[in-house]
Amino acid sequence: MRTAVIDGNDRDRRTAVEVLEAIGEEYSAPGTASDGKAGYELILRERPDLVIMDIDLPKLSGLSMLKRLRAENVKTKVIILTEDRDFDRARKAIGLGVDNYLLKPVKRAQLKKAVLQTAAKIRDERALEHTFTVDNIFTGCMSGQLKADREFHRMTKEKYGFTLEEPGELFTVWLGGSYAEYGEEVRRILEYAGKENGISLCVIEADIWRMIGAVIYRPTGIQEEYRVFAERVVPLLCGRLRGEVICLWDRMERMDALMETLKKLRNLREWNLVFDRGDLIRPDDIAKLKVEPLKYPMELENRVREEVVAKKGEAIKGSYYRLYDLLRHEIYSPKQIRECLIRFNLSVLDEYRKVNIIGSELRIQHCLGEIARAVSWNRIRVAMEEYFSLLHWEAFGEQGDEDLSPLIRRAVRLVRKYYDHGITLEEAADRLFVSPEYLSTQFKKETGAGFKETVTGCRIERIKDLLRNSRLKLNQISELTGYSDPKYMSRVFKEEVGVLPNEYRKSGH
């Protein structure tokens, strides 16, 4: 602990230095001064943790020196040694943040005790300083371990300009299965957004819920922060991250309600089934939705049952796309959407059991359970893909497949099954246990087209079908056909077809 002794009396100054040295080397004074002016300069230069000083100093009084130091935000601890018994001066000294006030002549034991008490106070404050960070404050709110009292609010207000009793904003991103992969990148983007836009924010993480977010703890109150996140941050996140991204926003009347607000937003994730990827969802936005009752598509169910009996794999997939179109065209509650999908799948499953043997009933039930809990269309899609694989749609051949060799027949079925994933030649070869070179040669020899060309062709045909027979937006069509970027999908479509998707739709092909 760095100390300084400022006293006009040589004997008193030496006594104070000797007491410090007797306590330990770490208390030795970096300097002493015999007048207020020299003492002021010493303190500014050395920035000691503790100053032992007299009030009556030549050139500059002790109280005047303290006033100057406090005005310059020098918060060093001070022990006063003085012969002055004037209570008014003592009161003024205490008002300037003096930690102890001792009357001369001071006994060495008395001074030693005062120094050790002040040193303990410094250690406690440093320990608090180390833990009293914005990060730790909001981590404590999330864990429920923080018990904020009046003194705590005073400290946060003094140090950071806010209290937990004040309102704040909360932005969260749910990453689902991509949390481990993208969590750190999201943290960096949020921290940069705060610095770049002058927003006071603290990044928080809820690993168990696969959510990461930002607490805006000094909001302007004019929705400026919301606009920054809606117009800049969310588009950046959705452009940079693949997979599931659900962005939510809410206002906290008190920031110590952080955990309750986080739970509330977690429960609202399911409304992502109604909004588009890239929307910033707020509770107020959900409350304004005009939710329609969902009429179950019995006609479509009957059609898909016939397609199952006829073993028309591609037609079955088309029926599911029409179901997807129906569910996205109007605003239905997430519960209605999931219940409709479950009922439709059970109907297909019932028909399928009449003509085929199902390998794993347990896995089928797992897929249906995933759909029942889904909060994103990506989750539904993943569950549906496994559901399709368990029903062996690849066994449903197309006309002309019988002329192909067993290897290429399987390859063609892989393309039909996974074209909307953008399956590559290497992935197909790996599944078929042959080299990519051999598969490429045989595929072109028997089908007359390259593997990649065939995949792209399937995607383009599906896009055409969806443009003609659905009311889906381009971003929804890109989701269904395996393109993460609708603009890229449009560019590929124009290269293959000669017109943009919207032009194709308007032309009435």
UniProtKB/TrEMBL annotation:
What Pfam families does UniProt report for this protein, alphabetically?
HTH_18, Response_reg
Entry annotated with the keyword Transcription:
yes
Fetch the Gene3D superfamilies from UniProt: 3.40.50.2300, Homeodomain-like (1.10.10.60)
Origin, by domain of life? Bacteria
InterPro entries xref list? CheY-like_superfamily, Homeodomain-like_sf, HTH_AraC, Sig_transdc_resp-reg_receiver
**SMART domains per UniProt:** HTH_ARAC (SM00342), REC (SM00448)
Could you tell me which residue ranges the Response regulatory domain spans?
Answer: 2-119
User: Which residues get modified to 4-aspartylphosphate?
Assistant: 54
| This protein's record includes keyword Transferase | no
Q: Where in the numbering of this chain does the HTH araC/xylS-type domain appear?
A: 409-507
Going by the UniProt record, its keywords in alphabetical order are:
DNA-binding, Phosphoprotein, Transcription, Transcription regulation
Q: What PANTHER family would the database entry show? A: ARAC-FAMILY TRANSCRIPTIONAL REGULATOR, REGULATORY PROTEIN POCR
Its biological purpose: May play the central regulatory role in sporulation. It may be an element of the effector pathway responsible for the activation of sporulation genes in response to nutritional stress. Spo0A may act in concert with spo0H (a sigma factor) to control the expression of some genes that are critical to the sporulation process.
What name does the UniProt record give this protein? Stage 0 sporulation protein A homolog
Q: What organism does the record attribute this protein to?
A: Ruminococcus turbiniformis
